[in-house]
DNA methylase N-4/N-6 domain-containing protein (marine sediment metagenome), 194 residues
Amino acid sequence: MITVDTVTRGDSFKLLETMDDKSVDLIITDPPYNFDFAKRFTLQNHFERICKGCILVFSPPENPWIFPADQYLFWVKPISTKNTSKKYSRFVEMVFVYGNGYWNPNRHWSQYTNIFNDLVEEKDHPYKKPSSLIERLILNHSKPGHIILDPFVGSGTTCVIAKALKRSYIGIEINEEFYNLSMKRLGEYGFYTI
């Protein structure tokens, strides 16, 4: 059973089926990149059914989502020396923006481009996104009291920032190690009692 302000350990595909239509205000997620067409199609349909606002999906440019996005954002990642594949390194990740949900009227939109270069603070998860980038996306696309869904929680960054910004969150994570990490982080910030 999925509840607000909780990370549920389980399979996102099965748990999303149980959620009510238009029950969340914003989705920010970084799903595994190895999903095939059928899985991406299923996820995107779930997202559109349960979200009444914007849907923000991180993905590499070579792995686009099924339906054309309304907007495209680009995160220019820090340079890594790990590339030994004799290919050009990919230092850009895209955020596919779906829907015309809430846009914060108090933000100075002229200051924002669709290119971000935020740095990841600490790497306790191999695919962690910068807290400052997640914070900016939450502030731009939601208001206090809104419910934010991350069905692939990882280290819990989206949940921690949502709660710190007076939003509620719903998190789902299938991997036990990452589930425990997200619960630990939420506990460290006082958003969950371990």
